[in-house]
Amino acid sequence: MRNITVEFMLRQGTIKAVENVSLDIFKGEILGVVGESGSGKSTLASTILRMVSSPGRIKEGEIYFEGKELLKMPEDEFNQFRWSNIAMVFQAAQNALNPVLKIKDHFIETAKAHTRMSENDIIEKASKLLEYVRLQPKQVLDSYPHQLSGGMRQRVIIALSLILDPKILILDEPTTALDVITQAYIMDLLAKIHVDLGITMVFLTHDLSLIAKIADRVAVMYAGKIVEIGTVEEIFYGPLHPYTKGLVLAIPSLVDDITARRPIPGSPPNMLDLPSGCRFAPRCGYHMIEYCDGTVQAELIEAKPGHFTTCLEWERMME
Q1: Between the CA of residue 200 and those of 29, 141, 169, 237, what are the distances in Å?
Q2: Is the pLDDT of residue 17 over 90?
Q3: Which of 143-152, 180-189, 214-223, 277-286 holds the top average pLDDT?
Q4: How far apart are CA 49 and CA 63, in angstroms?
Q5: Closest CA to 30 of 176, 190, 226
Q6: Do 153 and 94 form a contact (C-beta atoms < 8 A)?
């Protein structure tokens, strides 16, 4: 992705939900994208699939996949490309299933929209995928969504996303609204899918503890911008942006003193009235103690090989 900007034209003004974002996704990796609610994670993911909801529009930018420019691809061609190459498990996916269709009909409709597979072949493949995600095909395929639990519906969606053997799987907060036991179960399942099938994954979440468990690299978003990119080890043990450091320090721990946990002061900015200069400055300790005047919203700097940050005071972060 290069210089992606997505705007929402509202009566009160224009919101740039994603602004001038560039990001590489490497083949075979699990890339975590983290940030608070409203940071632009879901909008960035929907941009890849050209599914930005109205009144949003992709104002500018380029997205390349194996040499193809996706944003310039004709609509009918992209409709065939979508799901067979890049699939997505949407946020609150357990509510994304059509309540009047049986589970088997979801598989049949999806596969027939992109392939010429017979219904028998589709059902056979769907059965194998449901077994793979540890569900009973005979019971599940003839069920309606409301007859399944939240965790079962989530696993159905994951199986459905794999029906066309995509190369990239985007997961938008796939464990939202699930209990902690089911969350752990889903995370183990996703890790197994990644290892067994070699699928590249993009995992969007606000929960850094989940990222620590599954991701290879992490991109941190704040107020529509990516503020840091690095490996999991770099992000957790050597963050180069105050926002990233604040997220890490806010994670609860079973072995640490709870008094050592500190929330990030303040609230995310109003996207209709962004601060001039650095968007994180009003909440940043370095700005508050006048190490940084906060007048510049920098673009990503490669502070160390493969480790990028927008903080101009990144060298202080290493002290």
Answers
A1: 5, 27, 6, 25
A2: yes
A3: 214-223
A4: 10
A5: 190
A6: yes
For residue 143, which of 189, 95, 177, 100 has the smallest C-alpha distance?
100
Rounded Cα distance, 224 and 35, in Å: 10
How far apart, in whole angstroms, are the C-alpha atoms of residue 152 and residue 134? 9
Strand 13-21 with 64-65, pairing: unpaired
Residue entry with tokens 């690095």: 230
**Best CA proximity match to 150, nearest among 195, 236, 92:** 92
**What is the reported pTM?**
0.91
Percent of the chain clearing pLDDT 90 (strictly above)? 71
Instruction: Using the structure block, give the residue that is written with the tokens 């309606």.
Output: 144
Average confidence (pLDDT) over 284-290:
84
Q: Within the chain, what is the greatest distance between any pair of CA atoms? A: 68
When computed from its CA atoms, the radius of gyration of the chain, rounded to whole angstroms, is 21
- The amino acid present at 192, given as its one-letter code, is K
Task: Please provide the DSSP assignment of 48-95 as one string.
Answer: HTT-PPTTEEEEEEE-EETTEEGGGS-HHHHHHHBTTTEEEE-TTGGG
